[in-house]
From TrEMBL:
This protein's name: Exoribonuclease phosphorolytic domain-containing protein
Keywords: Exosome, Nucleus, rRNA processing
GO biological process, one term: rRNA catabolic process
Highest taxon listed in the record's lineage: Eukaryota
Length: 292
């Protein structure tokens, strides 16, 4: 594994700058934007809420996930990613705590001009780094919503493989500029939870983690040793993502306690109440007209 710097100056095991922003979107219970550099995704979470009878499950909440590309309509790649995201999230959520309800998650790509990532066409839709940003945005949005019980937090990173005549050259978090030069790679998603058993390699300041999902593949032959190396590299990166999420939650809590923020919330709530009252008054007038 090479220790030389890459074209953007990073070492093989270095992530790009992590960005986590809690957007506060209207009409949803939680939202977050997550990015590795310019590779960014936005996710919103709504629920638990009322579910249509044909989707109702008597023993657990219905998890509905849709993924939207940067441009165009959702194609095969986006729909397949929605299915994978549902399989990744289900083990981390206590869906049985809210039976006969709906939890709705909507993910949106915020990049995709250079490499084709985030476009709706088949084969160009979602590279591994963009998938990782979407998974992390979803985890952050669920934490922001705090309405769905969670077993832990899911953190994801991508690993790429450069062509090499000898040992595999693996790099963490490949950028858009590096994607055309890769011969393999994939996304690795880990569940961080204090409920998991401790391992000798678990740092004291972090909860233990376990691999939930990966789509690592290569156009050249690779063995289990390479896969284990890629997983170990990804786990180190995922720990950094978890630390960044923990720090972002602390900042979010401080922001919520800020008087200026509370004044903003109060003004927003007052405006919404006035709007609802106005709508109610208009509705009463209409009812009077109907009675006449």
């Amino acid at each position: 594994m090479s220790t030389t710097t890459r074209s953007d100056g990073r070492t093989y095991d270095q992530l790009r700058d992590i960005m986590i922003v809690y957007e506060g979107l209207d009409g949803v219970d939680g939202s977050a934007r997550f990015g590795f550099g310019q590779t960014q995704s936005l996710t919103s979470v709504s629920g638990p809420m009322e579910v249509r009878p044909n989707l109702e499950q008597p023993s657990q909440a219905t998890l509905d996930i849709s993924v939207r590309p940067l441009v165009g309509i959702a194609g095969t790649d986006s729909k397949a990613l929605s299915t994978n995201l549902k399989a990744i999230l289900a083990p981390a959520l206590f869906l049985s705590h809210h039976p006969r309800t709906l939890i709705q998650i909507v993910g949106q790509a915020l990049c995709g001009t250079e490499s084709g990532s985030g476009l709706g066409s088949v084969g160009k839709g979602w590279n591994a780094t963009l998938v990782a940003s979407l998974i992390n945005a979803t985890s952050a949005a669920l934490v922001n919503a705090s309405s769905v019980p969670m077993k832990g937090v899911i953190c994801a990173v991508s690993v790429g493989r450069f062509p090499s005549a000898s040992a595999a050259t693996l790099v963490l978090d490949p950028s858009e500029a590096e994607l055309p030069h890769l011969v393999g790679g994939g996304c690795f998603a880990f569940l961080f939870s204090s409920a998991l058993p401790l391992t000798p390699s678990s740092p004291d300041e972090l909860p233990p983690c376990s691999l939930l999902w990966t789509n690592y593949t290569s156009s050249v032959v690779y063995d289990d040793t390479e896969l284990r190396q890629a997983q170990a590299l990804a786990e180190e990166g995922a720990r950094k993502v978890w630390a960044a999420m923990k720090e972002s939650v602390s900042n979010m809590e401080r922001t919520a306690q800020c008087p200026a923020f509370n004044r903003f919330k109060s003004a927003k709530t007052e405006s919404r109440v006035k709007k609802d009252t106005k709508n109610l008054s208009e509705s009463e007038v209409d009812d009077d007209k109907m009675e006449i």
